[in-house]
């Protein structure tokens, strides 16, 4: 197999793995899953703010997946993760 094909496949595999994990996190925030909302309340976030954070996270993931906007999505996700830390 061509090394270029291997690199492309590995890149897409990692992109989809990261996207799936972040999408699941956003899904829990958007659907207001009870334990996620409880954890947010501990740090002082209300349910509406937590849902907004989930929508922003999902938008960043969509930008990350699309090749043309991948760099912008990456920057948004870096900022998101930096804020989480």
Assembly state of the chains shown: single chain
Main pleated-sheet profile: none
Mean pLDDT: 92
What structural class do you assign from the helix and strand content? mainly alpha
DSSP helical segment count:
4
Task: Report the uncertain regions.
Answer: none
Terminal CA distance: 40 Å
* Element-by-element helix/strand order: HHHH
Q: Write down the Rg.
A: 15 Å
**How large a portion of the residues is in β-strands, by DSSP E?**
under 5%
According to DSSP, the number of beta strands is 0
Shape: elongated
Instruction: Please estimate the helix content.
Output: over 70%
What does the secondary structure layout of this molecule look like, with pairings?
Layout: H1 3-30, H2 34-42, H3 47-65, H4 70-84
Helix pairs in contact: 1-3, 3-4
Describe this entry's structure for a reader.
The chain has 85 residues and is mainly alpha-helical. Helices cover 84% and strands 0% of the residues. It contains four helices and no strands. It is elongated and about 50 Å long. The model has no long low-confidence stretch (mean pLDDT 92).
């Amino acid at each position: 197999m061509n090394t270029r094909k291997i690199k492309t496949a590995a890149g897409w595999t990692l992109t989809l793995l990261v996207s799936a994990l972040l999408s699941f996190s956003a899904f829990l925030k958007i659907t207001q899953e009870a334990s996620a909302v409880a954890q947010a309340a501990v740090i002082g976030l209300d349910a509406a703010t937590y849902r907004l954070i989930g929508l922003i996270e999902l938008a960043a993931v969509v930008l990350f997946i699309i090749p043309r906007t991948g760099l912008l999505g990456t920057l948004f996700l870096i900022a998101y993760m930096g804020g989480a830390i």
